[in-house]
Structure formats: C-alpha cells, structure tokens
Design brief:
By secondary structure, the chain is of the alpha/beta class. The chain has 14 helices and 27 strands.
C-alpha cells in the first residue's frame, strides 16, 4: 500500500490547482493525484465536440496564480487543456499523477486516523492510504450522460450522437443536423457545425437566456502591454469578478431590469426573429445559467440561414428527423442529443467510516467544502453563478490552512460537527434557487445546507473569500483532535460500529 500525507482525486482544473496550492503552501506534504483517465485536463480532455470552449472568461476560469496569456479570453478546449498541462509541468506536479487509477471507494480507519483509498487500474485493485483526502473529481459522470427517451428513436435511420461521446471521424459537411437542447453545449455546437453543415436546427423545449460578448477582452490585452503580467491579470480578474457579481446581484434584486436588457440585445441582433418564442424563458435570469455566445456567433449563423431555433415539445423521432407536437417535421441526417450531464457526488466514489457506509445526503455541508462528522475530507465544488475555478482556488487555499493548522496543533484529525445551537436550524438543499433540471434531478443525493454559517453554501465569491482567508478556523464547528475520538460520528454509523464490536 502506497502512503501519502494527502491524496488528490482528479487531474482536471480543480486537481491540478489543488496540487499547485499544496506545493506552495504545504511544501513538506507528500501527495499523489489519482486520475481515472490517461491524460491531464478533466472536462477539457473528455469533451471533443466541435467548437468546445469555455462559457466564462479565462481570467476567472484560470488559476489565481497563473496568468492567462492568450488573446482570447473565451478560449477553446485545446487551449484550456494546454494551460492546465503547463501548470502541472511548471509546478512539478505531473510526476505525482497516477494515471488510469479510478477511485472506487475510501474508508476512514479510526485506529490509524487515515483514509484507505481503493482504486482500479488495468482491471486490478490498488490500495493507497493518506491522512487527508481532497476530492477534485468534478460533479458529473464521465461514463454516462443524461439522455431522455424519445419515442421512435429506434426508427431513425441517421446517426445519433451525444456530445460527451463525440466520434473523432464524424463528417457532418453538407448534412442536415438537429441539435436537441438549449444549454451551453447546444449553443456552442450550433454555430460551429453551421460553418460546414447544410443546416443546423436547435430544438428546445423552452428557451434559455443568451448573452453575447467579444471573445477577446480588450482591457486585458491592453493592460498586458503596459503592466507586469501578474498585475494585468489581477486587475482583469478583479474587473471580471466584479462584473459577474453585479450581473448576478441584479438578477436577484431587479430581475425584470436584467431580463429587459438581455432580450434587447437579442432583438438588436435578430430584429426579424421571433425572440418572444425562441429566446424568452419563463423564469428569471440566473434561476438557471445564462448562456454565453462569443462574438454573437449563434446570431450570425441564424442570419446567414445556416442555423435555426425551434421551440416546442417533440412528439416523436421519425425515420428521417423529428416530428414536433405542433405537427412540424424537421429533417435530419444527424441527431445530436445535447440533453445534459448526469451529476454525481465526489466522483461517484463510495465512502465509509470503519467499514460502515456514510450516507452523505444526511450530512450538512460545512462552508460548501466539508461534511459534518466526516474527518479529513475536503471536496471542490465550484459556483453555478460564476467561474468554477474561483471556488476551486478558495477551496485549495482553505485546505492548506487546515493542514498547516493541524501541524501547528500536532493533531491528526479534523472534522466539522454541528454545534448545539445548530441543531434546530432550517435545512435547505445543497444548491437552492436554481431550477436547472440537471441539478434538480440529483439534489436529494447531495448534502444539506443549513440556514446559518458555517453551514451555508452561499454561492457568493466575495463572502467566501473573506471566510476562507480571514475567518478563524476554530469556530466551534470545526474540531481538531489528536485522534478520531474527538469526532462525533453519525448516530447510524456509530451504532453499527458498536454492534460490530460487540459481535
């Protein structure tokens, strides 16, 4: 069994960022990264569909410690993957990655105060142990995607493709393509495929808010000419975080004002299009994610007649396309089911304490990063209303603070637990006020959040930054101890453990 101080699960943006922070802030800690795939990059290695790109700017999706140097701030997938690989190489992280190691489960051994992590590599079981576990495996299933059943799909004589499993040799030139979906993936695919396809039609049940912006940040590119690289990056990052916060706060305080602005931009770009039907959602902005389109590429494809949007229910799939509930027939040679992700918690790994499964859905999330009564475990879960890496950076910083504090105290165990005053607090979903289907389908599997700090999952970067960097670690809820005996285990786990000991 290979043993380390820290094991990081996942070698995408979150995992590589966590390792870089660890090397910088906790240089004496030994660590390994367990990555199920054979390459660095996570999302940006998995997705290969046409036009794959970020849907937020790279000055906030990039790491806080590594400036984004490219002219385009709305970057394509290969550029982002290159950036993550550069980070790994520059910080000496790559040799610490165990590729092809898919984590199956982790068991906390109370006697040893260590996690025993089981992974699968080349069909064989491999065991690791660590004192501290950082879960950076993202939030969706790489092996399965969300694909609703459509009546008649078996009758379709063309090709059916899901963006998560895009064939490398797919030729769609001069073909009629129907993309089912209205999220970021569909908004990316349609204008990209429209460059060579005969026509691409985006079929959606209901519209999504769309915002267009240039793919280059003129201010960022100008600042780099006159200021040191790190200064220019920091200023741009602050600017963009502030703008993101302003837009989100406006959506909460005055949604009608923001809605009117967004729809005006669409009408200006598509003056002769039925914006009310195809681009006006029934919900308020940021009740679901806004879709970003760089340089208005979707609008341009529609104006050229190479793309179209159809809104309504699908009645069935026919041999050569779709029949809508309205009776309209849409011809297709290729159907692309851009119907969403299948979310999972902690990379789909199973967790136990002394051999007893821990029902994580019954725990409370601590500062959006830890779980009540679960020792020495931190997860990275980014924002739904801002760039993922903003939260990932903060989570890694916090983990390093905790590790260093454990060393200062000479202890091996840390875990959050409910204080007496927390036991009557209101229980809320892990993510609230966000109606997107991909979240709602699995919220019952995620931990709960409470109505007071430190049990809230605020989705507020400015607030989280203060909590992570300035708030005292020992707040009465986060408990440090020399052994696991200081941790109050969940009642059901404790009871089962006691039964096993008695037997």
């Amino acid at each position: 069994m290979q043993s380390f101080d820290v094991i990081i699960v996942g070698a995408g943006l979150s995992g590589i960022g966590a390792a870089a922070h660890l090397r910088d802030r906790c240089p004496t800690k030994t660590f390994a990264i367990l990555e199920g795939r054979d390459a660095i990059g996570g999302t940006w290695d998995l997705f290969r569909y046409p036009g794959i790109r970020s849907d937020s700017d790279m000055h906030t999706l990039g790491f806080s410690f590594k400036p984004w140097r490219e002219a385009k701030s709305i970057a394509d997938g290969p550029s982002i993957k290159k950036y993550v690989n550069e980070t790994a190489d520059e910080h000496g992280i790559t040799p610490h990655i165990r590729f092809g190691h898919r984590v199956q489960n982790a068991n906390w051994d109370t006697d040893q105060s260590r996690w025993i992590v089981n992974a699968e590599s080349n069909g064989e079981k491999v065991e690791f142990s660590c004192n501290f576990l950082m879960m950076c495996a993202g939030y969706y299933n790489y092996d399965r995607a969300h694909t609703p059943e459509f009546e008649g799909m078996e009758n379709f004589e063309g090709l059916v493709v899901h963006p998560q499993f895009w064939p490398e040799d797919l030729d769609y030139a001069d073909k009629k393509v129907v993309v089912i979906g209205s999220g970021a993936t569909a908004m990316t695919l349609v204008p990209s495929m429209a460059k060579t396809a005969d026509k691409v039609t985006m079929v959606q049940r209901s519209p999504t808010y769309v915002a267009s912006r240039p793919d280059q940040d003129a201010i960022a590119n100008a600042l780099r000419k006159f200021l040191p690289e790190k200064w220019a990056y920091a200023i741009t990052r602050f600017k963009n975080v502030t703008l993101q916060g302003y837009v989100y706060n406006l959506s909460r305080k005055n949604p009608e004002k923001l809605k009117a602005r967004l729809l005006k931009f669409v009408r200006d770009a598509l003056p002769d299009y039925d914006v009310d039907t195809h681009f006006t959602p029934s919900y308020n902005p940021w009740d679901q994610r806004l879709c970003l389109i760089p340089n208005g590429d979707l609008y341009k494809a529609i104006r050229r007649g190479k793309a179209a949007v159809e809104t309504g229910q699908i009645d069935c799939v026919t041999t050569d396309g779709l029949r809508m509930a309205s009776g309209e027939e849409i011809k297709a040679d290729i159907l692309v089911t851009a119907t969403g992700l299948e979310l999972q918690l902690l990379g789909g790994s199973q967790f136990s304490i002394d051999g007893e499964p821990v029902p994580l859905q019954n725990t409370y999330g601590y500062k959006g990063m830890m779980y009540s009564d679960v020792p020495n475990l931190i997860q990275t879960f980014g924002y739904i209303n801002a760039s993922w890496t903003l939260r990932a950076d903060l989570t890694s910083e916090y983990a390093c603070r905790v590790l260093n504090r454990m060393d200062e105290l000479g202890v091996e165990v840390v875990a959050p637990r409910l204080r007496e005053e927390d036991r009557d607090m209101e229980t809320r979903p892990w993510i609230e006020n966000f109606s997107a289907g991909y979240m709602q389908r699995v919220m019952h599997l995620f931990p709960k959040q409470g109505s007071r700090d430190p049990w809230r999952n605020t989705q507020n970067y400015a607030l989280d930054k203060k909590i992570v960097r300035k708030a005292a670690l020992e707040d009465g809820a986060l408990v440090f101890g020399k052994s696991a005996s200081v941790i109050k285990l969940p009642d059901d786990v404790k009871a089962n453990a006691e039964k096993r000991s008695a037997a």
